């Protein structure tokens, strides 16, 4: 069988030459009804050689912000490289997209199934097809994600910071409002790519099944800046503000079940000891004031008002590098509004002298 020329790219049985734009579809499987499930893949090639960059969303089918970001980039014809190649995959997990679900029908997470297995679970087969067809072609990538299960994320880049100069440069070029150091998780796309010498950063914004217009706009601008950094575009919009780099983060979780009310917003700075919300019983008898055990920025927020013990409430990104008490103990650091020796007593609303009037005239903790 003749080998393709060095300047040709082979994908899904197609040979794509310099200067070509191609839409191809990777067939994954069929639904029980017999309907074919395939993954549309857009390829944009310049005449001049250069790096190959992957833009991919929909790893989790209910995370629509990344899908919309790539759709707009394609629709507005912003992915016309001056050099190199751009591979754009708006939706990897077609199954999840059709079912408003994070997972594939077998209940597994594609982003914990890499490098995959052609005879494994459905998630593993999706990952394997990606590894066989896409991964060998790329040098760099941006993987678009969204907070899930009623949890919203402020626009942020997640990557392995200060361990690889190329990754640091990609994150700096994207210039999201926040850049968070995030370790590699077993079975994830980032881990597998790093093992093969590819560099992939993750962009997070908003929550599942909700469009986050500001986050989408920031995602488009950041993507253009990365492509400009790699010499693939002539220009890109400048960031409005410098990125805030955070080397660690802490999830604050519910110590008590009840009705959660947040007093903070995404992107807000909080100090150690500052109240960030309350958890109250639904009968109007008791409420617990929640104080942050750390100083940092709110980069994730739970919008579900009804919470159980252990539920994640807020995600705080921190500028400090040394472990704190919150990292060394079980992460249930919410404190009652009044402290006893046990520091766990709930406070009666009627007896609490620190009650403040709410906007609607009702009392809150």
UniProtKB/TrEMBL annotation:
Protein name: Succinylglutamate desuccinylase/aspartoacylase family protein
Presence of the UniProt keyword DNA repair in the record: no
Gene3D superfamilies: Zn peptidases
Sequence ranges assigned to domain Succinylglutamate desuccinylase/Aspartoacylase catalytic in this UniProt record: 49-230
InterPro entries, A to Z: AstE_AspA_cat (IPR055438), N-alpha-Ac-DABA-like (IPR043795), N-alpha-Ac-DABA_deacetylase (IPR053138)
Keywords of this entry: Hydrolase, Metal-binding, Zinc
Pfam families: AstE_AspA_cat
Bias kind Acidic residues: ranges: 349-365
Cofactor: Zn(2+)
Keyword Cytoplasm annotated: no
CDD domains: M14_ASTE_ASPA-like
Record region (Disordered): 343-365
Source domain of life: Bacteria
Annotated organism of origin: Hymenobacter lapidiphilus
One MF annotation (Gene Ontology) recorded for this entry: hydrolase activity, acting on ester bonds
């Amino acid at each position: 069988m003749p080998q393709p020329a060095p300047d040709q790219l082979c994908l899904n049985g197609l040979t794509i030459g310099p200067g070509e734009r191609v839409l191809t579809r990777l067939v994954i499987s069929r639904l029980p009804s017999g309907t074919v499930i395939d993954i549309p893949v857009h390829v944009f090639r310049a005449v001049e050689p250069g790096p190959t960059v992957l833009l991919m969303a929909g790893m989790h089918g209910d995370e629509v912000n990344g899908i919309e970001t790539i759709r707009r980039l394609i629709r507005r014809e912003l992915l016309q490289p001056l050099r190199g190649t751009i591979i754009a995959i708006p939706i990897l997990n077609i199954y999840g997209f059709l079912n408003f679900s994070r997972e594939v029908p077998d209940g597994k997470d594609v982003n914990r199934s890499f490098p995959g297995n052609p005879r494994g679970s459905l998630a593993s087969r999706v990952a394997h097809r990606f590894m066989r067809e896409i991964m060998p072609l790329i040098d760099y990538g941006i993987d678009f994600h969204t907070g899930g299960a009623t949890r919203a994320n402020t626009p942020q880049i997640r990557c392995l910071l200060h361990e690889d100069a190329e990754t640091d440069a990609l994150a700096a070029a994207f210039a999201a409002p926040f850049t968070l150091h995030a370790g590699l998780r077993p079975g994830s796309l980032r881990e597998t790519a790093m093992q093969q010498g590819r560099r992939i950063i993750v962009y997070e914004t908003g929550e599942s099944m909700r469009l986050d217009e500001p986050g989408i706009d920031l995602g488009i601008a950041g993507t253009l800046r990365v492509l400009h950094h790699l010499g693939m575009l002539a220009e890109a919009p400048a960031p409005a503000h410098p990125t805030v780099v955070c080397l660690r983060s802490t999830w604050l979780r519910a110590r008590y079940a009840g009705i959660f009310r947040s007093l903070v917003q995404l992107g807000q700075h909080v100090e150690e000891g500052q109240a960030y919300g309350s958890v109250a019983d639904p009968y109007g008898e008791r409420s617990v004031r929640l104080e942050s055990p750390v100083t940092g920025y709110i980069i994730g927020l739970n919008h579900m008002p009804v919470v159980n013990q252990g539920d994640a409430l807020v995600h705080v990104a921190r500028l400090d590098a040394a472990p704190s008490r919150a990292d060394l103990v079980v992460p249930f650091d919410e404190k009652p509004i009044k402290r006893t020796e046990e520091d766990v007593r709930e406070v009666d609303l009627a007896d609490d002298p620190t009650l403040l009037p709410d906007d609607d005239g009702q009392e809150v903790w």
